[in-house]
Amino acid sequence: MPSKKLKIISWNVNGIRAAWKKGLKDWILKENMDILCLQETKAQVDQLTDDITKIDGYTSYFFSAEKKGYSGVAIYTKEKPINVVNGLGLPEFDIEGRVIEMEFENFVLYNGYFPNGGRGPERVQYKLDFYDALFKRTQELRKRRKILSLSVITIRRIRKSIWLARVRIQK
Q1: How many CB atoms lie within 10 A of CB 137?
Q2: What domains are there in the chain, each with its CATH number?
Q3: What pLDDT digit, counting tens, does each position of 102-123 carry?
Q4: More confident residue, 49 or 162
Q5: What are the helix and strand counts (H, E) for the chain?
Q6: Would you say 76 and 36 are in contact if contact means Cβ atoms under 8 Å apart?
Q7: Kindly report the CA angle at 134 between 129 and 136, in degrees rounded to 5?
Q8: What is the Cα Rg of the chain in Å?
Q9: Angle in degrees, CA 77, 79, 82, rounded to 5
């Protein structure tokens, strides 16, 4: 079967309800993409109206943080997935609603909102552990499908971190 070209767009909306009020639905209909990945939705499904969750021609999937108003990802798709998985199967990460894995015939799509490590050493370690867990999962799936990751990855350059890295490299 020949591959079909897909129009896939990713966008950090910084709050889906606020983006909706600013015309997100009109933009979605105008762009007419096959798949739309949204990050930082900051809402749980029960807080959303049908207008947001049900757009003609699309099926929507949401994965929210347990904490209201925090992180969250969503996918709107015209293409029917073979399988959809919310999270990595690891409670320490899944409580923050950061990843939807969607398997299609020719590829696996990851829509992710990566943790920010800027709140101290514990969050830096959490972020690095998240990277490791996601990498391990994608390596397993890579054996049978191509991987497409559409994600927001926050990386801050801190002089102290750069200095520490240089010291370690020189030793």
Answers
A1: 20
A2: 8-170 (3.60.10.10)
A3: 999 888 999 999 888 777 888 8
A4: 49
A5: 6, 8
A6: yes
A7: 95
A8: 17
A9: 105
